Amino acid sequence: MKLIKKIFDSQRKHFSETGRLKTLKPLFDAFETIFFIPSSTTQQTPFIRDGIDLKRFMSIVILALLPPLIYGVYNTGYQTGLLQGLSLALPAVLIRGLETILPIIIVSYAVGFFWEVLFASIRKHNISEGFLVTGLLFPLILPPTIPLWQVAVGISFGVVIGKEVFGGTGRNIFNPALTGRAFLFFAYPASMSGDSVWVATNHTGQQTVDIITGATPLACTVLTQAGDSLESILSEAGFTFKTLLIGAYPGSIGGTSTLCCMIGAAILILMGIASYKIIFGGVAGLLASATALNFFSGPQSHPFLSLNPFFHLVMGGFAFGIIYMATDPVSAPGMEKSKWIYGFAIGVLTVLIRVFNPAYPEGVMMAILFMNLFSPLMDHIEIRIRLNKRLSNV
Q1: Residues 149 and 192 in one domain
Q2: Which of helix, strand or coil describes residue 91?
Q3: 176: cis peptide before it, omega within 30°?
Q4: Can you say whether the dihedral through the CA atoms of 104, 110, 111, 113 is positive or negative?
Q5: Of 197, 217, 239, which marks where a domain is finished?
Q6: Gap between the Cα atoms of 291 and 88, Å rounded
Q7: DSSP at 165
Q8: Smallest Cα–Cα separation from 231: which of 307, 174, 328?
């Protein structure tokens, strides 16, 4: 490490205010913080002693993302092998999964980092470590068949329009990763929805299946007719509650396994990174609204109305969204009571969008973005209520 430190010290002069590479100073600082903790300290009081900073904060989030990422690699390789009749041995499955997912992650980080460096150089401030999380979150909410050029377009939209136009990390209204995914969903719907996008295929010259039947559980709910038992149809399609909990079915790269997301939630809550109030509020809102809809179901109503509320928890990407996306400390409320209401509203909206909008059965993405919009207002209202409770000055 002393050798690396010496290299950075010898080159720092070139990136100073008078150096010939001063415009690349944010890039130099970014690489230096990869190896060393920033040496800058507060010069005036008050001094705050805390063991957490932005770099450590983002590192813990990435650690919590590893369970769904690792399972996503496995599941992507497994679904591909199952579809094409290839080997399902663990090494072969992992290699196939990495071949599909690694290019997506690399493009996401490379393109997003380019925009971060560009805006940091123009504004003459350091590169924020916030993109370390966004660059990994974005690939995990995409289908494995997404074209790489669309990954580049999506992350560009998320970083530039979703964050940088508001002033950068800490000032954005919407979650950047979800903003990028929403753009891709509406701009290129054929690549983001439908049964043909959830399982990657390797064209090796041999005859492959003509139609990819990578149906998701939520897609099955859309095709169910009135009077049918949705739970029976899901079970016949292989989507038992256990299968849905584990996540062994086609879906977004990191959003299928509720179990892995729960492991990540435990890490985030125990480390004090994510608000348990948003997560538990979202679960409560989803279960409450799904239970309420059960009372309105009848023999001729849509089977989705009578679905067991706990199936909503393990279907689709709700667990991933409420744990990793809704708890974003920038786009989520900061006031304690607002966090409960914010999470509860996301759960309710997720169910309502799923049940009453057959063209868009997922729901959690739009629910989070919609509540991002009201997050500042919720904080403002709670602050005003608290101030009104204070005694007037005499």
Answers
A1: yes
A2: helix
A3: no
A4: positive
A5: 197
A6: 39
A7: G
A8: 307
User: Which pLDDT band holds residue 1 (cuts at 50, 70, 90)?
Assistant: low
Lowest mean pLDDT across 51-60, 69-78, 253-262: 51-60
The predicted-structure confidence for 109-140, as pLDDT tens digits, reads as follows: 999 988 988 888 787 777 777 778 899 999 99
17 in a domain, yes or no? no
Indicate if 153 and 240 belong to the same structural domain.
no
Tell me: do 160 and 241 sit in the same domain. Answer: no
Percent of the chain whose predicted confidence (pLDDT) is above 90: 43
DSSP 326: T
Q: Lowest-confidence range among 52-56, 205-209, 224-228, 354-358?
A: 205-209
**Residue 348 covered by a domain:** yes
| Sign of the dihedral defined by the CA atoms of residues 262, 96, 62, 107, in that order | negative
Q: Which of 265, 290, 293 is nearest to 280 (CA)?
A: 265
* In-domain check, residue 331: yes
State the chain's mean pLDDT as an integer: 83
Give the amino acid at 217.
P
Q: Are residues 84 and 162 in the same domain?
A: yes
> Is residue 41 pLDDT above 70, yes or no?
no
* DSSP one-letter string for 241-266: HHHHHHT-SS-STTTS-HHHHHHHHH
Residue 36 lies in a domain: no
Q: Indicate the pTM of the whole model.
A: 0.84
Question: Rounded to an integer, what distance in angstroms lies between the CA atom of residue 158 and that of residue 141?
Answer: 13
Alpha carbon distance 71, 77 (integer Å): 10
Same domain, yes or no: 246 and 339: yes
What is the domain count for the chain? 2
- Of 20, 63, 17, nearest to 268 (Cα)? 63
Same domain membership, residue 163 and residue 67: yes
Of 178, 197, 216, which residue is a domain's last?
Answer: 197
Instruction: Find the domain containing 281 and state its range.
Output: 230-250+274-381
